[in-house]
């Protein structure tokens, strides 16, 4: 067993790839906020691949976080010199690689002083984020929620912000005062128009305390849209055991599938790595890629995740082996989602659906239905409901997606079909549970404007939702699936 560190790279098992570049000579160019498994399997890997080619030596990554729990990740990575073992899980076999593109992690402190200082350094030219799709402080109309306590705090205390965006604004303020150019802000979260949303959040927050700064960010900053894709399960005991089985003691390994995609708008104000040389795509059609991925993959997870967890099915690959749920997935995708998706150079909508089915069915990836069902209060409005709206506008069917929403409402009661308890699985779980239990008697109680807007008044959707939820409560999940598939 070899403990992962700079000193032990040369004695790792021969089958494990490791950095060929001199990590001591790397210079920072990127701060990444929200450093978890996905970033290390995705953006950090693309940068590492460039470094393996002798490129991007001045684009090393400094990790960062704004929540107390981020400090635990910092401790784990610090103990192994910021190295991560990535394990690719393919049905045909597995392989491992140590990624070394990250060279530090700023201390996590109240007021975010170290993070602000790091981003104010002119050597940092890009700040990337994975803070989840629900982390951008959006109001029901998708604008900045200026009434949120965190946003109010940062507007009133701009030098001691609570949020990642407040820290970015504070750092940009320092850069402007020192005569330095702004950095590029790059969202890597699953949001349609994620760069535009990041711009809205940063500029809107700055405008609350310093309108001149907001104008400067608007005029000189850059916020490219991007689409990111790779299935990356959470790390638990099985993943820790797997990396040790491979001969490495790594306290923060990452497992991932054998597929990655990153499509980026080429809109950077202070330079960028040549990520396309590592397989990324720079394109002016990011929105088409985003729509395809979010509607087919991310919404597809919501189509199957709640139903599977309610039935006690633990993993996505096992879910795809369930004939009813697999049929539900394909029918809803083909009839209610694909009609609203545009082809991209690499895939027609039908070919992309085939790809997603194969990826979901990968038995080597232990991606849990619980992880997929997490934070439905952000994921359903962002991933599922846009297809409902398009279907209503075009006259396409929406009954399957109405069933998906009814399954979510049933899930949020907190009890599986076998009577076992579903532990809280959403930041807003208590409110969701109260609403879900009320909806057991009055289904329309679930269709609140904050989530559904005017869909509650759209009879084709609301009537189908009510019928589905009543059936789920009266006869169970299997009956609800059977009724839809027989229709």
Index terms:
Rossmann fold; 20 helices; 11% strand; N-(1-d-carboxylethyl)-l-norvaline Dehydrogenase, domain 2; 3-stranded mixed beta sheet; 2 domains; 46% helix; 487 residues; alpha/beta; single chain
What does this structure look like?
By secondary structure, the chain is an alpha/beta fold. It folds into 2 domains: 2-284, NAD(P)-binding Rossmann-like Domain (Rossmann fold), CATH 3.40.50; 292-486, N-(1-d-carboxylethyl)-l-norvaline Dehydrogenase, domain 2 (Orthogonal Bundle). It contains 20 helices and 13 strands. The strands form 4 sheets. A 5-stranded parallel β-sheet has the order 6-3-2-7-8, with helices on both faces. A 3-stranded mixed β-sheet has the order 5-4-11. The longest helix has 25 residues, at 286-310. It comes from Paracoccus niistensis. Residues 29-276 form the Mannitol dehydrogenase N-terminal domain.
Helix and strand topology:
Blueprint: E1 2-3, E2 28-33, H1 37-41, H2 43-52, E3 60-64, H3 70-78, E4 84-90, E5 93-99, E6 102-105, H4 113-120, E7 126-129, H5 149-156, H6 164-178, E8 184-187, H7 194-209, H8 211-220, E9 226-229, H9 237-245, E10 248-249, E11 254-256, E12 261-264, E13 281-282, H10 286-310, H11 316-319, H12 323-337, H13 349-360, H14 369-373, H15 376-394, H16 399-411, H17 429-439, H18 449-452, H19 459-475, H20 477-486
Parallel strand pairs: 1-10, 2-3, 2-7, 3-6, 4-11, 7-8, 12-13
Antiparallel strand pairs: 4-5, 9-12
Helix pairs in contact: 4-6, 5-7, 6-7, 7-8, 10-12, 10-15, 10-16, 12-20, 15-16, 16-19, 16-20, 19-20
